[in-house]
Request: fold
Amino acid sequence: MRRALGPGLLLLVLVASAVAAADKTIPMPPDHAYATLKPGAGVEVTRQQCVSCHSTDYIVMQPRGNAKQWDGVVTKMIKVFGAPVSDQDAKTIVEYLATQYGN
Amino acid sequence: MLDLSRRDAAKRLARFGALLAAGGLVGAPTIAPAQDDLVLARRPLVRYPEKTDLILLTSRPPQLETPMKYFDRAITPNEAFFVRYHVFPIPLEVDLATWRLRVTGRVDRPLELSLDDLKTKFPRAAVTAVNQCSGNSRGRFSPRVLGGQWGDGAMGNAEWVGARLKDILTAAGVRQGSVQATFDGLDKPAFPSVPDFVKSLDIARIMEDPDILVAYQMNGAALPMLNGYPARLVVPGWYATYWVKNLSEIEVVDQVFEKFWMKPGYRIPDNACGCVQPGTAPARTVPINRMTVRSFIASPVPGARVPVGRPVTLKGIAFDGGYGVQEVQLSADGGTTWRRADLGSDLGRYSFREWTATWTPAQAGPARVMVRAFNRIGESQGREPLWNPAGYLRNVIEHIDLQVG
Reply:
């Protein structure tokens, strides 16, 4: 009985390993257009600098805020998250956000 | 602009409703657009790989939330389960021939486990448990707080199957004096300066809790890539931040791990309520941990029209941080009187508990139905929301508004 099961069991193991060795690959959908940044002075710098790490919905969903709020956010991105953004670009981004997404 | 388009949508819906009524289609479902919900307004439905239509919070790294309609049942389908990544790029490809879960650090026998090893070298363990983002419902905080502006759909409940974390650490042989284990996944930031998403748990906690799993199965199937394929950590009762996805490395360390995602990230005020006066900062914080008690009404949908004098079936779920749901109650009079709901089957203390109730509206006009749950140690939900600056732990009493008549 045990011997009779042998080949079947072996086949099962082979099939199982073949399945287990399969790759899983998924495509990454592009950034959704609903979160396109508002036009305005500094929008290009803001877009270029921010989208290297995240889509712009991370920006547009936030509560609106003054320059102090946005300076805090941009400083956090640079100091805490290590975003490679120059002082000049940081200033441009904060001005853009405080103007277009201010309260 | 937004208001206009919403009014248009409402008008179209009203016309549609009138058409249905004229055609004699009594009992056709009432449509209540999520556009009435200020947090979800404007947010598109999107379909990501291995997922169904989910509400988009962010594209990259992806954050997708589960529509409320899926919370009329205890188990959340894999394709509808919410998605939340922290850093970009995320893993888009896994080759099981080369994928290994490494166990390193202060262990006697470092391990490199294949998926087959996880399945065959350790006893198989199962737990049904809620996975909820720390910031679920953050979009509803007032005053508002920065961060992912989630509605209520950053939660789900599944049956997880895998190897016990304590068995894996025992096989590796944790050395005396070890304090924590850290958990890292395949998601790696674009710049080396960006803090990698790494979380930690106390060794003592891991060794005491047989329900903490390295799960390779979710509701009887392999995990979707965006929910952590091929294996993720499952920490029942605790917020999802600890449930590291696409797990690839466990390191045993001799001190409390305090890199970004443990400190200052994912901290709550160090007091009994985890809350502070709105708009203020806590003096001291601790890592977020056990989930608070919550309950939701999934059906009918907010804004639905229901008839006077005829029973309406209400359905939803309730959960807590691992003591188990004791009771769910509903109120249709602003919280003056509460009636007990019928509880569905008990899938364990970490699971969503399904509930149903019937309510017969006595008079026409707007009506509000509120829901609250109690767990087995008497914890419940409050009338007024608690506040903390990170927008965590939300558990205010929820409600839906309906039109009667």
Remarks:
- The helical segments of chain B are 2-22, 115-120, 165-172, 203-208.
- Residues 129 and 351 of chain B are 4 Å apart (CA to CA).
- Chain B touches chain A through 43 residues (CB under 8 Å).
- The longest strand of chain B covers residues 365-375.
